[in-house]
Structure formats: structure tokens, C-alpha cells
Amino acid sequence: MRRTKPVVTMILSGLVMATAVAGLYAALHSSLFTVRVVEVSDQPQDAPLDPKEVTSLAAVPLGKVSLISLDLENIQRRLFANHWVRNVVLTKRFPQTLSVQVIYREPVALLQGPQGVLKYVDSDGSLFGPVTLKGRSDLPLIHGLPQGAGGEKLLGQAMAALRAWSSHAWKTPNQISQLTWDEEEGFTAWIAFDPSYRISVILGPEWNPGDPTQAAVNTELFSRIDSVLRYSVSHSIPIRQIYADANKKIVVRTARRS
User: Fold this and answer.
1) Does the pLDDT at position 12 exceed 80?
2) Which range, of 78-82, 171-175, 213-217, averages the lowest pLDDT?
3) Under a CB-based contact definition with an 8 Å cutoff, are residues 52 and 59 in contact?
4) What is the pLDDT at residue 81?
5) Which are the contacts of 94, defined by CB distance < 8 A and separation ≥ 6?
6) Separation of alpha carbons 228 and 165, rounded Å
7) In sequence order, what DSSP letters do the residues of 157-188 get, joined into one string?
8) Are the CB atoms for 81 and 87 separated by under 8 Å?
9) Taking the chain, what is the end-to-end CA distance rounded to the nearest angstrom?
10) Global confidence as pTM
11) What is the CA radius of gyration of the chain?
12) How far apart are CA 256 and CA 41, in angstroms?
């Protein structure tokens, strides 16, 4: 009797396991769990891809595969092939739906390369592209940067300049429409008040907005530029250029009146 009991237990365990395997096989091949719907959720209003394009990229074989055995990694890989896609969240919604949430890159600037090719720059300084008509048209343009490691370093400084500029409490309505680099003059910011009125602000070759030790210097510099801009607007003085340097006085060149 003592030997019979372990044998019976083993037989029962085997039957339970076989039943579980058979049940799993039946579930995997049951039409009840066949993927019938791909749901694209939480799309922003200005999304660069519409739901049909997302569904096409995902390329889920509807009606041919079980939701249980659906390979999510391959679907993610296909979606990541599009340069606009930053992250993907896939959720299986039983019995027959796959939910797809796409998180997109947010371009904050355009970079024009030495050959004139335009690329988007996202908030962390990463390049992606090509530029399309679906992207924003009001992004500041960065150009004049050299190729190689030097250009990458300057791109980081350019992005720091844009962040520092936008975070400053400006009291005059303006935005940087263009940021250029020159070996002699350093960064020049073109401030757009309207399509017909732009001011160039030459910041100098030694200005490094990416240096955290210069935070106080940057704040002081922006405050001085802000004062000049507010004064020019309130007194209807047309300014052509502002020469700004953290260690020197600001020099203003006015435009000739027509």
C-alpha cells in the first residue's frame, strides 16, 4: 500500500499537467481569443501619425493569431522603425483586442546641417527626421554648426540657450526664430517680434549657456537684453542689432527709419 500511494499521486499529477497543457493548447487555438481589433488610444490632437498609419506600422495579423500568443516585441520593433515614435505601450485586452499607445517625440528646434539637410531636434538634443510638412512650422532654426564632436557639443549649448531663453521671464513678446554659430562672433539669436521685424542678438564666442556655473551670468545677461527690448518697444525705437557680452556693456545698433 505504501508503494501504491506515490504511484497514484504521480499518475494524478501527470493527468493534471496533461489537462493543463491541453487546456492551454485549446485556448491558444480557440477562435474566442483570436485578435480581431487593434485599438490606437490616447492620440494627441497634433499627432504626426494617424490611427490608420499606426495600425499599418504595427502590422498585427488580424484573425490569424491568438491574443495569448501574440508577439509584442516584434510589434514594438516595427513601430519603433518610425522616427517619430519615442515609446510604445501595448496592452492585451481580452478577449480579442490589442491596445496600442504611441508616445511621440516632441521637436523643439530644427537643425540645418552643412549640406542644408534639415533634422528635428527633440528636448534632449537627439536628432531625428527627415523634416515633413506634418511637423511644426514655428520651430527655431539652428545652423552654422560644424560636423563631428565639436558640432555635437555646440548643439548641446544651442539647446541650453533655447531653454534658458524660454525660461526667462520676458516682458516683451518675442521668440528666437533662428540661432546661428560663427567662430568669431559665437552664437547669434534672431528674435522675431513679427514676420517683418527681427533683431539679431550677438552673444559672443565665450558665452556658454550649458555651463551651470554661468546660470547667474545668464540671468543677468537676459535681464539686460530684456530691458533694452522693452525700452525700444515703449519708445518705438527700431533696433537692428544688439551686441551682448557677459563681461562687457551691451551695444545697440538701431535701424534707419524709412
Assistant:
1) no
2) 171-175
3) no
4) 96
5) 33, 67
6) 15
7) HHHHHHHHHHHS--SS--EEEEEEEETTTEEE
8) no
9) 114
10) 0.78
11) 30
12) 55
What are 209's three cell numbers?
549657456
Distance, C-alpha 102 to centroid of its chain = 13
Q: Kindly list the distances between the CA atom of residue 143 and the CA atoms of 1, 18, 28, 109, 119, in Å, as whole numbers in the listed order.
A: 88, 67, 55, 11, 11
Cell numbers placing 118: 534639415
CATH architecture observed for domain 34-104: Roll (3.10)
Q: Is the pLDDT of residue 215 over 70?
A: yes
For residue 85, the cross-strand partners are 104
Enumerate residues 6+ apart whose C-beta is below 8 A from 2: none
The cell numbers describing 114, all together, are 552643412
Amino acid at 97: T
Residue 33: pLDDT band (50, 70, 90) is very high
Torsional sign, CA 207, 147, 123, 49? positive
The CATH number, out of the four listed (3.20.20.140, 3.30.70.100, 3.40.50.11690, 3.90.950.10), of the domain defined by the range 107-254: 3.40.50.11690
Show the DSSP H helices in the chain as ranges. 4-28, 51-58, 72-80, 149-167, 215-234
Q: What distance in Å separates the CA atoms of residue 158 and residue 119, rounded to the nearest whole number?
A: 15
Residue range(s) of every CATH 3.40.50.11690 domain in the chain: 107-254
